[in-house]
């Protein structure tokens, strides 16, 4: 029996749950390990490009540490279009042979009062904790859960990204 080794480049509960939920849906006999690795980008990425690079860096850094079959990096960031700030989310998976697959997920508008805090140099996670008067929002519902009235939470948002990554992996593997 072959066991699929999956390395997760974060200890964030919402991201980890998303990876475990989706991988367990499509594979049997999986072993998960979590690692704290750097994204090598800003604490608060401020563009799609920087957020994507953060996901790639996390996946590659996880590969370097774990050498697992599948090495995941997920990154959340923000970007502006026409003066409006949106959350953006990217994922990457690094394979043992060094191949990196990427994709993006949901993007949603942030209220101007939140966007202004980020423009002042603050990070979304702590801003959301202050806004909701709760702790560790990023590990649970996330900004998306707050600003969609709970219709979509952070785990569900990242599950979509992980599903896209697994689909690309399955396609790549069969080429």
Question: Which stretches are poorly predicted, pLDDT < 50 over at least 5 residues?
Answer: none
Count up the domains: 1
Share in helix: 40-55%
Gap between N and C termini: 24 Å
User: What's the CATH topology label?
Assistant: Maf protein
Helix/sheet category: alpha/beta
CATH architecture: Alpha-Beta Complex
Q: What value does the Rg take, in angstroms?
A: 16 Å
Which series of helices and strands comes N to C? EHEHEEEEHHHH
Would you kindly provide a written description of the structure presented here, covering whatever features stand out?
- The protein has helices at 13-26, 48-66, 112-119, 124-132, 142-147, 154-173, and strands at 4-8, 30-34, 70-81, 84-95, 100-104, 108-109.
- It is built from 6 helices and 6 strands.
- Helices cover 43% and strands 23% of the residues.
- It has one domain (4-109, 153-173): Alpha-Beta Complex (Maf protein).
- The protein is globular.
- Strands 1, 2, 3, 4, 5 and 6 form a 6-stranded mixed β-sheet that branches.
- A hairpin with a 2-residue loop joins strand 3 (70-81) and strand 4.
- Helix 1 packs across helix 6.
- With 175 residues, it is an alpha/beta fold.
- It is an enzyme of class 3 (hydrolase).
- InterPro entries: ITPase-like_fam, NTPase/PRRC1, YjjX_NTPase.
- Residues 9-164 form the Non-canonical purine NTP phosphatase/PRRC1 domain.
